[in-house]
Specification:
lipid metabolism, 305 residues, 11 helices, Fatty_acid_desaturase-2, mainly alpha
Length: 305
């Protein structure tokens, strides 16, 4: 299967290299706002009042950064699955090099602006990276391609929405730049997924169904991830409505998953199950939005009181 995909990988790698724009993390960091922290350099200890970011934006930035920090584990997985030779190997290393900029830039921004407690941030990084990362389908390239096609789009949206709620132009510009990388990565994997639906439609459809059914963001091992995810969902950074409307639905439509012809019995069943999953996710999203609106109404009433 990987051998059959090699020409598609090469075409999309060449496309990516033409479209990818060179950029430099240091250019997006307001270094002049920085100062020494307490410790060996005898600087000033961090205080919550130092950060100009809303609390939910700080939470989102930390979640995004800690997710990016696990890059060594992600690289190990795709290098093992896709190999290090030919177009596949070139892509694996190029993707890793581009992703490495994201964690560097976000961390430098947060430290220079005193956006978060650096001690808490480092302890969380150590805890998260010490766990590593392993996909539930880490031995199957089809599942991996289906997963990253969804995950890259979800990550792009999370970065953009984090920048939007930050209320800080420098932060928003940085995250928009990172999101542009993630978008190109998504397009690469989305095109591979579309090719798989032509080369091996039954197997690709089953993989896509499995990924949709148990999708989790790669940062799910971050300390207090469930609580932080609820906070970000209430703020509209990433929620069930976004997951359904802005991630799953556009991807499925683009690759034609719900209209792929010529499926066998098992592939056709997987296609029907995807339609059922989407219907249930839509119901979940509607309920979530209703609960969020009720939550916001109660908050406004309490604030008025």
């Amino acid at each position: 299967m990987l051998h059959e995909l090699e020409p598609v990988v090469e075409d999309n790698l060449n496309r990516h290299l033409v479209l990818a724009r060179e950029w430099f993390p240091h250019a997006y960091v307001p270094w002049s706002r920085g100062e020494d922290y307490d410790g060996p350099l005898g600087g000033r200890a961090w205080e919550p009042a130092d950060s100009t970011l809303p609390e939910v934006a700080r939470t989102a930035l930390v979640v995004n950064l800690l997710t990016e920090d696990n890059l060594p584990s992600y690289h190990r997985q795709i290098a093992t699955l896709f190999g290090r030779d030919g177009a596949w190997g070139t892509w694996v290393h190029r993707w890793t090099a581009e992703e490495a900029r994201h964690g560097t830039a976000i961390r430098d921004y947060l430290l220079a602006t005193r956006g978060v407690d650096p001690y808490d941030l480092e302890r969380s990084r150590m805890a998260h990276m010490s766990q590593g990362y392993a996909s539930p389908h880490e031995d199957d390239p089809l599942h991996a391609i289906a997963y990253v096609a969804l995950q890259e789009l979800a990550t792009r949206i999370s970065h953009r929405n984090t920048g939007r709620i930050s209320g800080e132009p420098v932060c928003e510009a940085l995250l928009a730049r990172i999101a542009a990388d993630e978008n190109l990565h998504m397009v690469f994997y989305r095109n591979l997924l579309a090719a798989l639906l032509e080369i091996a439609p039954d197997e690709a459809m089953r993989a896509l169904r499995d990924v949709i059914a148990d999708f989790r963001m790669p940062g799910h091992g971050i300390p207090n991830f469930a609580r932080r995810s609820r906070e970000l969902a209430l703020a509209g950074v990433y929620d069930p409505r976004i997951h359904h409307d802005e991630v799953l639905l556009p991807l499925l439509r683009h690759v034609g998953a719900l209209t792929t012809p010529g499926l066998s019995g098992e592939g056709a069943r997987a296609q029907q199950e995807i339609a059922g999953l989407m219907a249930r996710l839509d119901t979940t999203a509607r309920r979530f939005v209703a609960r969020r609106e009720e939550h916001e109404c109660r908050r406004l009433v309490r604030a008025g009181a």
